[in-house]
Amino acid sequence: MAKVTDIVLWDKPGEKVLLLGNHAIARGALEGNIAVFAAYPGTPSSEITDTMAAVAKKAGVYMEYSTNEKVAFETALAAAWSGLRAMTAMKHVGLNVAMDSFMTASYMGVDGGLVVVVADDPSMWSSQNEQDTRAIAKNAGIPVLEPSSAQEAKDMAKYAFEVSEKYGQMVILRTTTRSSHMRGDVVLGELPEEIRKAKRKFGNFKKNPERYVDIPAFQRKKHPWLLETVEKYRKEFSESSFNWIEGDENARVGIIAPGLAYAYVKEALAWLGVENVKLLKLGTPFPAPYSLIERFFDGLERVLVVEELEPVVEEQVKVWAYDKGLRITIHGKDIVPRVFEMTARRAVEAIAKFLDMETPINFEEIDRKYEKVSKIVPPRPPSLCPACPHRNTFYAIRRAATPRAIFPSDIGCYTLGVLPPLKTVDTTIAMGGSIGMAHGLDVALNGVPGEEKRKTGKEKKIIVATIGDSTFFHTGLPALANAIYNRSNVVIVVLDNLVTAMTGDQPNPGTGDTPHGLGRRILIEDVAKAMGADFVKVVDPYDIKATERAIKEALAVEGVSVVVARQPCALYRIGQMRRKGEKWPIYHVIEDKCTGCKICINAYGCPAIYWDAEAKKAKIDPTMCWGCGGCAQVCPFGAFEPMEEGE
Amino acid sequence: MREYNIVITGVGGQGILTAANLLGWAALRAGYKVRVGEVHGMSQRFGSVIAYVRFGEDVYGAMVPEGKADVILSFEPVEALRYINYLRKGGLVFTNARPIPPVQVSMGLATYPTLEEMRKIIEEDFGGKFMAFDAEELALKAGNIVTTNVVLIGALTQTPGFPLSAEHVREVIKVSVPPKTIEVNMKAFDLGVKAAKEMLGL
Fold it and tell me: Is the ipTM of this complex over 0.90?
């Protein structure tokens, strides 16, 4: 088991390895001779980006952590307009950020291959919605490739560059949480010489305003081109090796399985012992390959489309069948659930219903038995790590502003501040949304800044927003400018842990370093001052009292206050310390001093602290303490003390 | 062999994904088709975690369906119970016996079931076998608590019907871990094997 960052650069064509879908995509991009990669991390896409960051220098690829998905898309697009092969990767909601450029770039085409990897998150394992990128792609007229295995993820990444160049249009490579985070066997292909020899590739931008400038007069000529291109891809995909018909050729019933649903359908058919069906495996959900579908439909009387989320393939097939005047029953979302992710069980249940069969095991019986279990198993939601600086900041905010204040927050680990006991997150909506919400709430609840009728003193609602450092640079900046410009009256606390923590500690402008080692650091307090914030202060959240004081000071100021709570991500710091062989203090509870008041548990809530019900005392799990000393500051009785060292 | 299904459960940060990856490579090196299913991101922050390892001639999706796991390997007792619906009838649960009480339990908002309560449900309602042992103690005995996952993998190789040989899995771990930690990991593996043999009466 070699390191993944080594494996993706192995010059060993034919070698079989175990790769995560995301690692396989990075390998496929290298096999496809990628020149430029730009992305903002987002689960479940992040490992593509991190793998590219780790290998970029060794492969002669330019790689950057962009500040957001729109900038990343534009960076990749410019490379493609200069004739280079480029890729960007993002989570599904990241595409919403890139959408403005994406929807127009579709009219303009590309010279070098451009691959936009979008990782959807059905069931919302780490996301705020489960939008289906295939439906967006259909609206944009952009072709979609969707793998059913890690092998296909690699092969499609490479093919995407080729087919993107063939018709001069960008291509979406769409994954889901399960295909991005599924490890599977992958046979490596060849690496191009330029990648092997780390040869940097340079582009050539040929001026052509009619093509690269999007004024209406130019764009009107290009929309028909976009629609023609969709039909070219439809034809191309009818011959694609990612699409095929298998099973019983003479069957009367057929199943269409796009993307990863193919894996579940294969498992379901084997489990059900069903052989007399024809199966259409689709790696290209949009545009649906009509000639292949026509061949598939030959002899069929009933068809079921088993797809995750939206009926993207189902609707295309139904439109095609209607236009053809076919009188075939086509089932889809009437049988297959439209919400949450596909599973083998769901595929079994849908196919059993479609074929009027019993399921091979009694799932309802398992569910019934499990009901009893779910009642006695205590919940274990994710929580902020031990020593997480955000916990201290939230604790200080609640003390300074009182729990009655309103707390707009943002997207990151710190969204977990919504859970008890911290409960310092009242709204979240999207990346950078905290500041816009804070300003909007101030206007809605307190009135127009400067106006006489505006609420002041005790009548005024206190609003304290929290936003992470990476999120601040991502989309917080325009919102801060808006709040300052419109004379908002809010406190904005930037939870600056110096990395993009939730997605795996990636660097950002506040960190400074880049994969190529030449980054320039931007200080958040400098930005806030330059924009004209009325109060700016930097504090260390490991000093809870000082943080509380800073927020109180900020609350006393009329206008926009920015408090930067700066302390490295604990998970990141501990990882670094372990690598360097450094030690940290481990706190213990002095039993005689602990009165059992439970403030440390019921108000602070570090996961390293637990309640010993027999002794009626708090205890610390020494394997989980990362030594921030927050507990010692929170405890009114001085019961926490550093006693030993962790390593 | 058509398919063998392992479900690995525990608390984020315990080394569950590493264990899943090690087993995946061991199966790949034994010539099987392999699927490993994981969830990254927010779920890893000290929350409940589940990973799947499947191998055989006939595996496609990465997730083990309910009622199909041959074995549940758990790093924390109540996490085995949380995912007990995945166990097939006659399947085996191997769990580290040391509980990590969730914050809600400490806050008095939930209670933590006893090992005996868990055993009763797993054996009587789900027709499984329940085996709990202090894998962390064995890991400490081997020299480092972070080898708990290797202790558990060692124990797993003794499961009746487990398709990979203990020697093969041991060898894959040996070539996978950092050279400095080979000795402690091999010790941990052997202690896991020994503990499982005693529990299973082998």
Answer: yes
